[in-house]
Fold:
Amino acid sequence: MQVSGAVRGRVLSVASECVPLIKTGGLADVVGALPAALAAVGWEMRVLLPAYRALRGYLDAMDEVLADPDLFGGPARVMAGQIAGLSVLLLDAPHLYDRDGGPYAGPAGDWPDNAQRFAALSWIAARLAREGVQGWQPDVLHAHDWQAGLAPAYLRYGGTASVASVMTIHNMAFQGWAPAHLLAALRLPPDQYHPAALEYYGGLSSLKAGLVTAGAVTTVSPNYARELVRPEFGLGLEGVIAARAASVFGVLNGIDTEVWSPEREVMPYSAKKMQAKAAHRAALCAEFGLQVPGPLAILVSRLTDQKGIDLLESVVPDFVAAGGGLAVLGSGDPALQAALLALAQRFAGRVSVKIGYDEDLSHRMFAGGDAVLVPSRFEPCGLTQIYGLAYGTVPVVSAVGGLADTVIDASPAAISAKVATGIVFHPVDALAFGQALRRLIALYADKKLFARVQKNAMAQEVGWAASAARYADIYQGLVE
Structure:
């Protein structure tokens, strides 16, 4: 696609989170990165988000562009403005979003009215797509994950054909299920409650609603798009994906290379000048209280079975015995947290665990680690391994989703061709993971070869340029 200074089209992006305003996971990174990436290929994007309590401080500096006296139980308004370089629309509906806690849950667990909260976001998105915003009229409505899944449905069932729609799956595991009796309360047409449309195993799924009504469906890596027709990845929606196969596209995520770059760290380094990485490693070992003769592996992750964290208990002892070490940053399942802390106690000086998340610390870990472990059972795209590539922190990954799309295994053929960027294992079990860690030990022992794999990794294109061009092509095809 040719780049020009002219605006080729306009996109209304609707999501539940967006960096740097609100984040619980990789969805926020993608939503926050797309506007600038798309601007480079001529597509202007505005982002619609809920005005959570944490974002209400921005409202006074914004302009009201739409009012609704009764949005799923209370008055609401849409405020427009520039925040952190983004063109943002905040849906100010205090009865839905002005609460303590996170976007989806409070101290007692998931908000019981999440179906209504995110239906409201989708309803307003469809209305803005139809009516425009102060003369700004989108050509495409781009909905992200289940929280925005009803937006394409409201657009379709509202009889509007002039605005195209795209539904992006960031993680099929979260489907926005709701009981069928909410059909009318969610302002959905009763005649569409059947298996080919809204009905989903006796209930409703906002994600399914988006998948069956959007003009195109995307997901965040080509391999994940292929996997979704299999029951173990489609999780009940594989039939919908198969039926829409001609309109399903895998578009690999990128990372913000202005934020994630070894050349922007306190002690900068690059593929041509790697000396500072050793200093980062020493500093990281000191920070975690580690002394590691072999490869220092890092793990920065949500601590869940999906991420394969339960496998560590089986593989870490042999890895440590062979000279390896492990620094962990993450939080999640209390049982997995306890298991990792027990490993750290058992292998003090070689394994160290910090529970929680710290963006600055994660940068120091990627800068100082020799390898990053991503043993996920499924991974739509994954950003962790891409950060590893950018920092020359060799990824050790399972062969699923975007992990398989982004990491080239250090097989004999790839080493001979000088293209290997990491270690890929399959199946996702302790035996294969343990074998991968033994390969890491051997690779690290060959200093010349390990340095070559690091440089190969750092030579990969990990930014948003190619992905933005692909999204632009999809938008263009829908509009035409």
